[in-house]
Amino acid sequence: MNDHENGVRVHFLDQLNAASVADFVALLDGTYEHSPWIAERAAAARPFASLAALKVALARVVREATVDEQLGLIRAHPELAGKAAVAGELTAESTNEQSKAGLTACTPEEFAKLQELNAAYNARFGFPFILAVRGPRGLGLTRQEIIATFERRLRAHPDLERAECLRQIHRIAEIRLNDKCGVQPARGQQLWDWAAELARHSDDAEFLTCTYATPAHTAVAEQLMAWMRDCGFDDVHRDAVGNVVGVYHGTAGATAGQRLLTGSHFDTVRRAGRFDGRLGIFVPMLVVRDLHRAGRRLPFGLEVVGFSEEECQRFPADFLASSAVIGAFDADWLARTDAAGITLADAMRAAGLPGSDEAIQALRRDPARYLGFVEVHIEQGPVLDSLDLPLGIVTSINGSRRYTGEVIGLASHAGTTPMGQRRDAAAGVAELILFCEQRAAAVPDVVGTVGMLEVPSGSINVIPGHCRFSLDLRATTDEARDALDADVRAKLDEICQRRGLSFTLQPTLAANAAPSHPAWQARWEAAVTALGLPLHRLPSGAGHDAMKLHELLPQAMLFVRGGNGGISHNPLESVTVDDAELAVAAFEHLIENLHV
């Protein structure tokens, strides 16, 4: 954001904060379609410290409104590419938005398709389909993207779709407020563009997939290094496990003084989104770029690591990249193979890496050299999106235990075996699933999941004699995780004894919880508060590189809201440029106020 834009924004906020309620509503006219009541109620929350604070306050008014008021807001919006658009009867704001997406210039076939979708949507939900057609980047979605989103959301549950319409309305309002203030979230736009550019490198031609030590993976590393050099990092290299490392020296230079370690991973799951992991590399890169352009150094160095592997998609070696950084890389991993029989060591060498334990062990960081580790990450969940909050403070990364198991009963005829004499393996697992759900739900921040379920050689007229399943048990503390684990295993034993079944249970993962370091969590909280945003603290149910760095350094994480209900590990994963801009600003505040 340039000085002129910042001045326009501050002037507009000053006007809003000083205005009468009537003038406040007038200044915000057109932000929400034909709904002045939103501004009227939000006026009571003044003064607003930032444009982001205003956006959150307006969204809160809508979230706390009655269902009838929310429906009235949704119905105040026009249909996409409807008759009003053709006749030129939309508000100026809607005309601008629909024209940016090309909806005022549909082909006859596209117009007919949209009319068909509009009719089906109204028949199902009773309100018009709402979509911020300028999109998360702000430049406008294509008509093909709009139609695909229309078709996907037409299948949603009515309550979920009403909530999604409201979130889309808030995005429309955000873009309109930016236009009123002359604001361009330039760093957020750059982050979004980098993510789109990196997504071109994929193992799969159709969906983003970037697994360890593939040609696409190497191409991503090379592109990251090129961008880091352009940003002004003093030292950029690819290490022995393929991590991309960029160092921006502090005032003490290359050899003296401590560093702040930060970053995230750049590998992906299969059929991935663009922001998981990579967002946490881009954010500090943009801050370094600004420091370099201003000719400024910090009292400490910044070391940004793009971890080469976190997702465990190609080789069975969890967190191999961050494990190397903390000195916990297991040399036995080098002999492990992927689905094609290629060893990890051979894959490393094919990707231009040494593939030797000696080179990898040399990567261990000296904790005395580092202040701590911080990570910025997309939330990968629905909490922030449901609360209309762009940023959240991570309190802990959940500890977890995972198992694969099998219950063994007796396969017998479905018609001739009385209900009281059955040894149904699938019914036993079904009972365990329900217990796991109920037991986890009874304790805050504890979750339990059976994600895989299989009846081998099952038949419609045969009682299942075998049932395979998985267990994923997580909690914010090791004590809560272990209590859940003990109760679930005891219940499995009890179910099998009562039903005349037997079972096997194989542990596949045990990870300890990683609570955020209080001082570093407080620094993230101060950064979010400085942006004028309310604090929301939440645990991370997903694993992150930070939980490995936790074993060596104090750590804390910042979450960024994900769009589309917070979905991640999915092509629908998204962040807006405005939320990305706030994440960069929060990181900037953290380092500018870090006293060493």
Automatic annotation (TrEMBL):
GO BP annotation list: allantoin metabolic process; purine nucleobase metabolic process; urate catabolic process
InterPro entries: Amidase_Cbmase (IPR010158), Bact_exopeptidase_dim_dom (IPR036264), OHCU_decarboxylase (IPR018020), OHCU_decarboxylase-1 (IPR017580), OHCU_decarboxylase_sf (IPR036778), Peptidase_M20 (IPR002933), Peptidase_M20_dimer (IPR011650)
Statement: the UniProt record of this protein carries the keyword Methyltransferase: no
Cofactor(s) annotated in UniProt: Mn(2+)
Annotated ranges, domain Peptidase M20 dimerisation: 399-496
Highest rank taxon of the organism: Bacteria
Alphabetized Pfam families for the sequence: M20_dimer, OHCU_decarbox, Peptidase_M20
UniProt similarity note: Belongs to the peptidase M20 family.
Binding partners and assembly: Homodimer.
Listed name of the protein: OHCU decarboxylase
Species whose genome carries this gene: Roseateles puraquae
Gene for this chain: uraD
